[in-house]
Specification:
- With 118 residues, the chain is of the alpha/beta class.
- Helices cover 35% and strands 25% of the residues.
- A five-stranded parallel β-sheet has the order 2-1-3-6-7, with helices on both faces.
- The radius of gyration is 13 Å and the shape is globular.
- 28% of the residues are buried.
């Protein structure tokens, strides 16, 4: 990841990851994609992105269970928890930078959500 704006998407929906990648590349982000929690954690460690999109249910685990750990390890990373159903958010550490975005994601919703990210 080379630009000063980086994002990592951890989601097992391949088509969604590619659509999100295209969306963020058009906004001058350097984008990483991981389809499993294990690969995502490796990429997170290697690249330490500004923003992390983390899916709830992944093939190798529950992504949201890692969110509090990630928030402690990478306090400058903004974590966007995404899910196709309304799940209770994990207990995050005080001061953690995170929010929840529910699927299905629309272009209109993404534009509104990320309006302040240039």
């Amino acid at each position: 990841m080379e630009s000063n704006k980086t994002i990592l998407i951890i989601d097992d929906e391949i088509d969604l990851c590619h659509l999100l990648k295209e969306y963020f590349v058009r906004r001058n982000f350097d984008v990483g994609i991981a389809y499993t929690l294990g690969d995502g954690m490796l990429q997170l460690t290697a690249h330490q992105p500004n923003i992390l999109l983390l899916d709830y249910n992944l093939s190798d685990g529950i992504g949201w269970r890692q969110a509090p750990i990630i928030a402690k390890m990478y306090p400058d990373t903004f974590i966007v928890l995404i899910s196709a159903f309304s799940a209770a958010p994990p207990l995050m550490p005080e001061g953690a930078k995170y929010s929840i975005l529910e699927k299905p994601l629309s272009l209109k919703a993404l534009n509104a959500y990320f309006a302040n990210i240039n």
